[in-house]
Amino acid sequence: MDVGFSLVEQTKIVTAASELARNTVIYGGGGEMRIERLNLGSKRIGLRLTFEDQGPGIPDVDLALRDGFTTGNGLGLGLNGARKLSHEFDIWSKPGEGTRITITRWK
User: What is the predicted pLDDT for the residue at 89?
Assistant: First the structure.
């Protein structure tokens, strides 16, 4: 999917995607990732990635988004790091039902 991202932009979206994919597998027990190319005319193009699982969910999303928060042995950069690397970030999570995170990066 050629969007024309610079190397820096590519690195940001790949890093965010890697963090979210890791969380989907480790904490959500697996799931799926969808990618879509966005084209809002010739002035705005981008990528939207959605990660979704049916895992245990996140009991406190606000806490999970804080810098340095981790439930494992990591550095606590996952969710908040992905949010900082994205132009748009949306999270839905419900204990016992799973988690859906959508990130968008515009060119």
Answer: 98
What would you report as the CA-atom Rg of the chain, rounded to the nearest whole angstrom?
A: 14
Which range of residues forms the domain containing residue 46?
7-106
Residue with tokens 């963090």: 19
| Position 96 in a domain | yes
Percentages helix, strand, coil for the chain (3-state, rounded to 5) are 30, 30, 40
Beginning with the edge strand found earlier in the chain, give each strand of the sheet holding 98-106 in spatial order. Answer: 31-39, 45-53, 98-106, 88-94
Q: Domain for residue 1, yes or no?
A: no
Number of domains in the chain: 1
Whether 2 is in a domain gets the answer no
What are the structure tokens assigned to 85, written together? 């690397």
pLDDT at site 41:
78
CA 87 and chain centroid, separation: 11
Where the chain has pLDDT below 70, the residues are 1, 72-77
